[in-house]
């Protein structure tokens, strides 16, 4: 059995909260995009390049916003 320390979940929760705090649409990393997320994190850790992370966050933000529209539509 593998136990995880929860740092990833905590970090994503903080990002979600910060989006709400600053009045921008939050995002959730979809399971299907987990490999892309991990690659983007590795890119940052290796060279401090946030391009892949911000691109993924924007893509996930748009996807989340579009899903929310279902509940907001009249």
SSE class: mainly alpha
Number of helices: 3
- CA radius of gyration is 14 Å
How many E-type strands?
A: 0
How much of the sequence lies in strands comes to under 5%
Major sheet characteristics: none
- Assembly classification: single chain
Distance between the termini: 46 Å
Count of folded domains: 1
Percentage of residues assigned to helices: 55-70%
- Globally, the shape reads globular
The helix/strand order is HHH
Instruction: Report the uncertain regions.
Output: none
Structural account:
The protein is mainly alpha-helical and 74 residues long. The protein has one domain (7-72). The protein is built from 3 helices and no strands. It has helices spanning 7-21, 34-47, 51-72. The termini are far apart. The mean pLDDT is 90. Residues 1-59 form the Fido domain. This is Fido domain-containing protein. InterPro entries: Fido, Fido-like_dom_sf.
List descriptors:
mainly alpha, 69% helix, globular, Fido domain-containing protein
Task: Give the topology.
Elements: H1 7-21, H2 34-47, H3 51-72
Helix pairs in contact: 2-3
Question: How do you describe this structure in short?
Answer:
Helices cover 69% and strands 0% of the residues. The chain has 74 residues and is mainly alpha-helical.
